[in-house]
Amino acid sequence: MAIHNRQQLLSLLHTFSVAARHLSFTLAADELFVTQGGVSQRIKKLEDLLGFSLFVRKTRKLELTPEGQRVLVMLNLSFETIFSEISDIQTGELSGELYIATSPYFASAWLMPRLPDFKARYPKLAIKLQAKQNQSDFQFEPYDAAIFYSEGHYPNQYSERLFEGVRTPLCSPDYARRLGLNLDTSMDDGLEALAKANFIHSGDSSAWHRWLQAMGHR
User: What HEC string does 82-100 produce?
Assistant: First the structure.
């Protein structure tokens, strides 16, 4: 897309964001200092460029189409990122919001104990933390960073290994004796004994399957 066309598209998207916020071409016209007809023409031109409708035009009000809602969410996230970056440059320190997704265990055992020191260093930066078992899709979820156990294969995304973890089953000494587990138990005998055990599952029931795979058993 040529630079001129990009600039025109950005201008039309700004008009759309104002009209979508008000759900009114008249109120958008007042804010943009243009006529109501001018706003309507800009939206029609934007819809022609995009190839889909942004608004459902009813007699007394406007409604966003599903496509219009998706475009508005994208614009709001983009504008928030732009304004936050400008603020960071102006103030010389991190500010705004940092949205992090990670597993409940990592959040409680590693991340939370370190947040007080982090907040002391960056007092103007608000931390939003989402604890979840499944990994995140940055295309559809508003996370700035995510920390999960994974294989590290993320096309079109930057990822870095922080450290390795070790999974191991735990139980009381009495329960181990009842199962016939001890330090001299071989791996095969140990896995056979574990077949009789009652496993406690977290929300992610695949954890034990991954542990067995890591031990070389499918």
Answer: HHHHHHHHHHCCCCEEEEE
Find out whether 19 and 25 touch, Cβ atoms under 8 Å.
yes
The C-alpha atoms of residue 130 and residue 175 are separated, in whole angstroms, by: 35
pTM (2 d.p.): 0.44
Maximum pairwise Cα distance, the chain: 85
Residue pLDDT tens, the chain, 218 long: 555 577 888 889 999 999 999 999 999 999 999 999 999 999 999 999 999 999 998 877 899 999 999 999 988 888 877 877 777 676 666 677 888 988 888 888 889 999 989 888 888 888 888 888 777 666 667 788 888 877 777 777 778 888 877 777 788 889 888 888 776 656 566 667 777 788 776 655 566 777 777 776 65
Distance in angstroms (rounded) separating the CA atoms of residues 200 and 211: 14
Q: Could you tell me if 28 and 39 are in contact, meaning their C-beta atoms sit under 8 angstroms apart?
A: yes
Residues 140/141/142/144 CA torsion (nearest 10 deg): -110
Tell me how far apart the alpha carbons of residues 53 and 63 are, in angstroms, rounded to a whole number: 11
Spatial strand order in the sheet of 145-147: 125-131, 96-102, 145-147
